[in-house]
Amino acid sequence: ARVEVEVGYKKFETLAESDYKHVESHNFVAVDRDATLTPDNFFVMKIDSVKDISVMLNACYDVMHTDLPVSPYMCAGLGASFINIADHVTSKLAYRGKVGVSYKLTPEISLIAGGFYHGIFDE
Questions:
Q1: pLDDT of residue 54
Q2: How far apart are CA 105 and CA 123, in angstroms?
Q3: 3-state helix/strand/coil string of the chain
Q4: How many other C-beta atoms are found inside a 10 Å radius of the C-beta of residue 62?
Q5: Calpha distance 27→16 (Å, rounded)
Q6: Counting beta carbons within 10 angstroms of the beta carbon of residue 110, is it exposed (0 to 12), middle (13 to 18) or buried (19 or more)?
């Protein structure tokens, strides 16, 4: 077993899925002030990207084989995600699951291949 501290950064750009009459119009969104959107209860904001900085504490388990150089591993983690939308930062409790394999090149160096799922609570 081992413990990891992990910091991640991801930037999601806004994408235009079709041609728009006005340049960059896919970056604008109408936000309503009430439950029903009417012509006088909303404001428009521009969102160029969504950024996520995460800080995680992971507990990992390595399945060690003395006769094989390949070792599968799995991790579960808790931490925080700091989500930036239009320069407004919100912090959320986050979780992460990771699985993969490590291949021991030398006693000090391993090659690792794996994947992860990162999610936030309260959504």
A1: 96
A2: 41
A3: CEEEEEEEEEEEECCCCCCCCCCCHHHEEEEECCCCCCCCCEEEEECCEEEEEEEEEEEEEECCCCCCCEEEEEEEEEEEEEEEECCEEEEEEEEEEEEEEEEECCCCCEEEEEEEEEEECCC
A4: 15
A5: 8
A6: middle
- 87, pLDDT greater than 80: yes
Quick one: tokens of 3? 């413990």
> Length of the chain in residues, anyone?
123
Q: Tell me: the pLDDT tens digits for 1-41?
A: 899 999 999 988 776 666 666 666 667 777 777 777 777 77
pLDDT of amino acid 86: 82
